[in-house]
Write a structure and sequence with these properties.
Low-confidence stretches: 24-28
Number of strands: 2
Largest sheet: 2 strands, antiparallel
Radius of gyration: 19 Å
Order of helices and strands: HHEEHHHHHHHHHHH
Distance between the termini: 35 Å
Strand content: under 5%
Structural class: mainly alpha
Strand order of the largest sheet: 1-2
Shape: globular
Length: 267
């Protein structure tokens, strides 16, 4: 098991190295990505400042907690953009055109290659800016961050980044079974935008069930924010971790099921 893990890690690092080399061959694209993502972050920040400027609390959350929430969602989104988004975003097109063939015939895991072949260093500034916003929110909230709290927060941010990946993969794998998933991609965009503005603590009843356990965008930024601000129980953390494990297991199973139904361009 450790040998397979080491092999996959080396494969991922090799893909990242090749991507970085290609980007540095076209430096204008490299720096344009830095500028575009930085500008996007500023627009998002100004939007939230306008929304929450005159509010002291939302659903019992203080202004400091809301700032942490905004920064956390931005950080998870930035990690998504850096690590895997540009690798799997056009998976539906690859499935429809039969371009997936070249991934299935090459050595190594086709899913790993799809996921990490377009590692995007241009979005790294978003990670830095997001961390600065989180640090500011922590200061406003008056939270004392210990080493263990910082480690726990980082762990759950990474878990939620994995959950975001699971949702992106699951939704795109639907294209294995239908002709077009354009409507589903549009719904995904709307759900992300909505949950980027509304903390999960505001969901009650059926909406809580939907956005916590069926389309779990509601926990992605909420749970790490609750953790660092001390407003979530150990049981809530366990349930959140189990939710990520369940969706990761399902995403990998759904991917394999989709491959069995894939119609090769040569078939």
């Amino acid at each position: 098991m450790m040998k397979a893990l080491s092999k996959n890690l080396n494969f991922i690092l090799l893909l990242i190295k090749f991507k970085f080399s290609r980007m540095m061959m076209f430096r204008s694209d490299f720096f344009l990505a830095f500028f575009a993502d930085g500008a996007l972050f500023i627009v998002q920040l100004l939007t939230f400042e306008a929304i929450y400027l005159h509010l002291d609390s939302i659903g019992g959350w203080t202004r400091g907690q809301m700032i942490i929430f905004v920064g956390t969602f931005s950080l998870i989104n930035a990690l998504n953009m850096v690590i895997y988004f540009f690798g799997i975003v056009d998976l539906p097109d690859k499935i429809r055109r039969g371009d997936l063939d070249k991934y299935l015939t090459k050595p190594g895991s086709p899913l790993l290659r799809l996921t990490f072949e377009n590692f995007n260093v241009g979005s790294i500034p978003l990670i830095i800016f997001s961390i600065l916003i989180i640090a500011y929110g922590v200061r406003v909230a008056g939270v004392e961050v210990s080493i263990f709290l910082g480690i726990g927060y980082t762990f759950f941010v990474l878990l939620m980044t994995l959950l975001w990946y699971d949702m992106e993969l699951i939704l795109r794998c639907i294209t294995f079974f239908v002709l077009s998933a354009g409507g589903i991609m549009h719904i995904e965009s709307q759900l992300i935008d909505f949950n980027f503005k509304v903390p999960g603590i505001l969901y009650k009843g059926v909406f809580r069930m939907i956005f916590y356990f069926i389309l779990p965008y509601g926990i992605m930024s909420t749970v790490p924010t609750q953790l660092i601000s001390g407003s979530i129980s150990p049981g809530g953390l366990i349930v959140s971790a189990l939710t990520v494990i369940a969706f990761t297991t399902f995403a990998l199973w759904f991917w394999k099921l989709g491959l069995r139904h894939y119609k090769s361009a040569s078939s």
